[in-house]
């Protein structure tokens, strides 16, 4: 089994970070493997969601391998940040939504990977953190950008600038995670994904794009984006099927067209 293990569970692809002896920490090679796995998911027939989890019960992902980050030329440091950012950003354009299943520690790059996912579920022992400030650094794989978009600038700055940990109950309260799960996290993830996998993938994609693009726009321009994408949605066969099914009082049969 490789460090980045990609499997299938029904209509969900499951990416497992399989390095529990190192708390599933990220190296640059592992980040590249994650990117390759995302590309593979994009080509998998019949997949309607991606679940990401860490092997073992202690850690989702403990972040970057600090030893690998030391004593590197300045341009290599820049390329490393750009690598992490570009790989995690692929989740924004993946044809299917993604769900981070955060079991245990999600520190540094681990939190940033979870933040890049469409949704986040946490086990009761989950702990989030961006502790880079304690090393004289700041997050480099998207944390300073995605966290404030998710929970607001004030809370995000406090978490980033203190480097403190955020436990599961607080994470749920401030909107960092969608839910805290008691029991089997993978089963909960499959059930959560089942809430949207029955819908049209094009429509789901339009919805994600409308929300994501609006985050960088004034309200008036965001509304224009929404109008354009909602209009495109009307042109799909799935929209015709959905509206016909509503009128005929039956369940729609979406075909992703």
Automatic annotation (TrEMBL):
Entry keyword Lyase: yes
InterPro entries documented for this protein: ClpP/crotonase-like_dom_sf (IPR029045), Enoyl-CoA_hydra/iso (IPR001753), Enoyl-CoA_hydra_C (IPR014748)
Entry's Gene Ontology BP terms: fatty acid beta-oxidation
Keyword match Phosphoprotein: no
Any one GO molecular function term: enoyl-CoA hydratase activity
Keywords: Lyase, Plasmid
Signal peptide: none
Record Gene3D superfamilies: 2-enoyl-CoA Hydratase, Chain A, domain 1, Lyase 2-enoyl-coa Hydratase, Chain A, domain 2
Annotated CDD domains: crotonase-like
Listed EC numbers: 4.2.1.17
Family: Belongs to the enoyl-CoA hydratase/isomerase family.
Name under which the protein is recorded: Short chain enoyl-CoA hydratase
């Amino acid at each position: 089994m490789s460090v980045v293990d990609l499997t299938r569970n029904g209509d969900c692809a499951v990416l497992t970070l399989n390095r529990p002896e190192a708390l599933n920490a990220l190296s640059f090679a592992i980040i590249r493997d994650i990117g390759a796995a995302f590309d593979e998911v994009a080509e998998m027939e019949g997949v309607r969601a991606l679940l990401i989890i860490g092997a073992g019960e202690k850690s989702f992902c403990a972040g970057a391998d600090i030893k690998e980050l030391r004593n590197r030329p300045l341009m290599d440091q820049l390329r490393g940040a750009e690598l992490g950012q570009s790989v995690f950003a692929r989740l924004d354009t993946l044809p299917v939504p993604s769900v981070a299943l955060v079991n245990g520690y999600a520190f540094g790059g681990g939190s940033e990977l979870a933040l890049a996912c469409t949704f986040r579920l946490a086990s009761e022992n989950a702990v989030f953190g961006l502790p880079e400030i304690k090393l004289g650094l700041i997050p480099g794989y998207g944390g300073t950008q995605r966290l404030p978009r998710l929970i607001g600038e004030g809370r995000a700055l406090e978490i980033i600038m203190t480097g403190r940990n955020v436990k599961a109950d607080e994470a749920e309260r401030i909107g960092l995670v969608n839910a805290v799960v008691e029991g089997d996290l993978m089963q909960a993830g499959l059930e959560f994904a089942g809430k949207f996998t029955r819908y049209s993938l094009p429509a789901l994609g339009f919805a994600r794009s409308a929300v994501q693009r609006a985050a960088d726009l004034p309200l008036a321009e965001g509304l224009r984006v929404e109008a354009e994408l909602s209009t495109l949605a009307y042109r799909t066969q799935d929209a015709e099927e959905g509206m016909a099914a509503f009128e005929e009082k039956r369940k729609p049969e979406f075909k992703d067209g």
